[in-house]
Amino acid sequence: MLTERQLLILKVIIDDYIESAQPVGSRHISKRPDIAYSPATVRNEMADLEEMGYIEKTHTSSGRVPSEKGYRYYVDHMLTPRQLPKEDAVQLQSVFRDRMNETEEIIRRSAMMLSELTNYTSILLGPDVRKHTVRKFSIVPLTNSTAVAIIVTDSGHVENRVFPLPEGINPADIEKMVNILNDKLTGVALHELHRRLEQEAAVILRQHLDRYGDLVSTFRETLVSPLEEKVFYGGKLNILKQPDFHDLQKIRNLMDVIDETRHLPLILPVGNEGLHVTIGSENALTAMEDCSVITASYRVGEEQTGLIAIVGPKRMDYKRVVTLLDTLSGDLTRELTRLIRGGA
Amino acid sequence: MLTERQLLILKVIIDDYIESAQPVGSRHISKRPDIAYSPATVRNEMADLEEMGYIEKTHTSSGRVPSEKGYRYYVDHMLTPRQLPKEDAVQLQSVFRDRMNETEEIIRRSAMMLSELTNYTSILLGPDVRKHTVRKFSIVPLTNSTAVAIIVTDSGHVENRVFPLPEGINPADIEKMVNILNDKLTGVALHELHRRLEQEAAVILRQHLDRYGDLVSTFRETLVSPLEEKVFYGGKLNILKQPDFHDLQKIRNLMDVIDETRHLPLILPVGNEGLHVTIGSENALTAMEDCSVITASYRVGEEQTGLIAIVGPKRMDYKRVVTLLDTLSGDLTRELTRLIRGGA
DNA sequence: TGTTAGCACTCATGCAGCGCGAGTGCTAAT
DNA sequence: ATTAGCACTCGCGCTGCATGAGTGCTAACA
User: Fold this and answer.
1) Region for residue B22 given its phi and psi (left: phi exceeds 0; alpha: psi -120 to 50; beta: otherwise)
2) Which residue of B has its CA nearest to A103?
3) Domain segments of chain A as ranges
4) pTM score > 0.70 for this model?
């Protein structure tokens, strides 16, 4: 168990190191106004802290640096949730100012704002589009052989995709199809669309359309394809700004990982509610072993959830980022829910 | 004027240096099968070439490196346009395979492909959306107070934007407005939309709508806003792969510049037809002074033009990139034009 | 007269040695 | 229990030095 004084010293070491990126020595600690002990005393405590694994030396006679265990202890036990400084709160609020009617736009802005405020990289997952429900279908012919299919969802999201028209199709058939689709499938969630199309709409479509097979098969493909969760980045390049990263090779690996959307599930605890901190080698990917990731979830309405994540060096300003994410997650939940509910 | 032999040596130096990134020495040149002279002779010629400013030394007794003047001469006089190697051609063609119906998707793919083939960064500007013409308007109400406005263009591009509905608006009025808009403004180019709305549609709208002012004013805003040219990047991180870039500070500046869409007009000769090569300090921005930019334009139909650009180190494989861009620009022009014409 | 061999010269690079200073661990005094 | 003192460690930056790649020049050669 850690004594009161050891706690104090550990906290000072971590706070100092987070700020300065320099190993912190006993003399330096002793000089701080909140420390009333001589360097020698501090050294003794530091030796103990090191023995217990909370801090490390970079070389035999260097100052101390927090270990991963140290950071872990810090975020688990020493992060009394604070109020966001007013300045940050104001900035953060600006995301929701102006006539912001679109979920995606708000999320995009949030990503920007987060990376600006923290100088780290932010990753925001939008609420799962597949849970949005169909508000309206329409099909707009472009040429003899192509048309664009449009799905508007209840959230105001618009999916659109050009698809080939079967040759010599009757324009009236297209209109019929759109009407039937709207009739039968409005209110259906996007991920159910395919199944429901088969189950319910198919019969009726077949009755009413001359060339049922051709038209529907080509149209259906457009429905199943993308519909992934949207990912929004902020400050991808901020990694370059961190003095912690100087090894070009490591930077490359890191960037590759972050950039590849398919790696995201590995570095983000997708689906987890609440606030999570992953430190250094706790990350699944070795490319991220010098990074920490802080995530928070938000909700939109009852069902949909999204994720906010900050990727930075292990020497990240945990206190600040945690408070920021906590606040933003609340704000997003509130504002986005208000939005789909159609409140003022 | 350069002698035959000086030309040969200059070419060898540049080609070798492009491949190896190492200063090339007289001995090395003399060993090549296409060089029949001793190192001493080569040295003499090199001294002349250096005097004329085509090559440089990195230090007193190093091999030679092409100067910017050297590269310039190389691209201006020594780039006999070649056929694309079959392997590359096949790869490039794959961009147009599969049912690719959407201009944007094709361009996105092209960007990817280019960066993959070259290991440099590619930037593609889509054809100016503002020149697309309206195929269809529609408005889909979402809640009591919001609706999404949708514009489909002749290219299959879909612009959509959520906008606030005036309180207590009559749904019939919305429908009326959409009908009038479609009636009056179909076929109008997006950049003319605002003006034409005022000139032609306004009068009629005013006659038919109870709450003309409210509805139109809030809807109009959604028309004027974005509609910029779309920018597609490929391999933004490829810069990190180039051995030429090792200075972290420079990399940061460079990335900043490339990332900022508003800097693009400065580094790309927007609007210029044909193929352009900008070498090192010929670039407008000092952050780019170690880079070369190769651009080519493409057309879609008669009016619209787009731009392909490759950003790489000065030590770029000009021959290959020029051929690639030349081919791709032709392919894009052909395929995209075919697309909007609705040919098979 | 153009080409080449030979040689002295230059300079980046890598390595060993060295002094400095920040910081530690230990011990003895308070 | 705390602290002053001191010897010790080790990273860092500096210097000096050997190495080798590459040059420029000169004189001999075809």
Assistant:
1) beta
2) B162
3) 4-77, 86-128+230-341, 132-224
4) yes
